[in-house]
Amino acid sequence: MLDRKIYQENYGKLQKMKEEVEKDPLLLAYHIYPETGWLNDPNGLCQKDGTYHFYYQASPLDENRGDIGWGHVSSPDLINYKREDFFIFPDSKYDKNGAYSGSAFIEDNKLSFFYTGNVKYPGDFDGINEGREHNTLKIDSDAYSYGEKILIMDNDDYPADMTKHVRDPKIYKKDGTYYMFLGARSKADKGMVLVFKSENLKDFTYHMRIETDYDFGFMWECPDFFDLCEKQILICCPQGLASQEYKFQNIYQSGYFFIDLDLENKTYKLGNFEELDYGFDFYAPQTFEDEAGRRILVGWMGIPDADYTNPSVKYKWQHALTIPRELKIKNQRLVQEPIKELEALRGSKIDLEKGKVYEELTFEGSAYNIKGDFKINLRKDVTLAYKDGILSLKMGASGSGRDERLIKIDEITSLRIFSDRSSLEIFINDGAYVMTNRVYAQEGYFKSEDLDLAIYPLGAFTFS
Ligand code: FRU
């Protein structure tokens, strides 16, 4: 149970946790991390009246995931952040076991959030077909507070062949009609996206489903649907895909389909599923369109149920959000570019001589003149190597259980690396491939024998 009263009663504990968090030498410098405790999915991303709002799944009193609600930071410029009051407490009968993931929708400057209220029944249930409610809730908000939690749909409103796992709403508006995309697991253990329809953003009816005509996991979490450069894109996180040598190397996946979706006529054609990330720590991404018209993606720099660990738990916090990335289409692929605002964090450029070690942890590094195979150190025991068309990221002890990830890439034309004190985000071929990772080396060690590297030391976000 986590409500405002319990939160306030734990003021002393939260202060102590904060002090511990601040002591972590590997606390991230330019990422959104929880002030205390646990963080998972980004939620409700939006920009309203110029201010960016990032909410996220959070359990502030427990770094190992306790009762989940929504944490909140705001920012005027994506560099300076303000920690706002805890946003959604799981304090109603509709969400008492978790204010789960959801999204923002803004129209005529009016903001609403849609999210999943998780309820678990006590007793001996499987929690899949029985013993659970996934309620779709709506709140109207000014971004800082909200009115009543309105129940929009419950399990009885979802198709009868669904399990109780139907969650993570995202709204899309087309030709005056609102569509809600929800991730779902059917009783036949097939993952899919359900689409509901509404004329007033309150009364929703089942419209259609989007699924593959082949086996593709038992559950699809966190769907997102949007248009970009005349393409329609469906993002989702399938669970239950078998690992292949160069694909699906994590326990759960995050990726996208190009889709030709005719919502009016309920027809669609899905392209191939492409992974959004090939690193160890990426899940549940969400996108939003900012006031400048950019489509920005933020992911959870973590993943559920992984068998590797995060030593930050010793300092009473766990997980972070990725740096925001602007989405673009290049050469028929969705590419992710770190948002340009991050350039404001740059110090003076350094050209690193081959074989020389750069000892800082927080920097942006780029390789140029890439010709053929290479090997670089990102930490002393972390290497990124390209050989015979395979890019491999190998981590030693500082991976804290993370070992190796491989990507098959015919040619590498560009490489951009964002290193924070305990993370690495690697953008390959202008962001056509990305690897997002946590890493826990105490010392910086960036070195290349064969590539020319340019480095910008990076400063830190401010949090007030
Ligand atoms: C994805 C997810 C969502 C859910 C949330 C709960 O990581 O499992 O499907 O809404 O996390 O925290």
UniProtKB/TrEMBL annotation:
Its main location: cytoplasm. The keyword Acyltransferase does not apply. It is found in: Cytoplasm. Its EC number is 3.2.1.26. PROSITE patterns: GLYCOSYL_HYDROL_F32. It catalyses: Hydrolysis of terminal non-reducing beta-D-fructofuranoside residues in beta-D-fructofuranosides. Residues 409-444 form the Glycosyl hydrolase family 32 C-terminal domain. Pathway: Glycan biosynthesis; sucrose metabolism. Keywords: Carbohydrate metabolism, Cytoplasm, Glycosidase, Hydrolase. GO terms for molecular function: hydrolase activity. Residues 31-338 form the Glycosyl hydrolase family 32 N-terminal domain. Enables the bacterium to metabolize sucrose as a sole carbon source. PANTHER family: BETA-FRUCTOSIDASE (PTHR43101). Belongs to the glycosyl hydrolase 32 family. This is Sucrose-6-phosphate hydrolase.
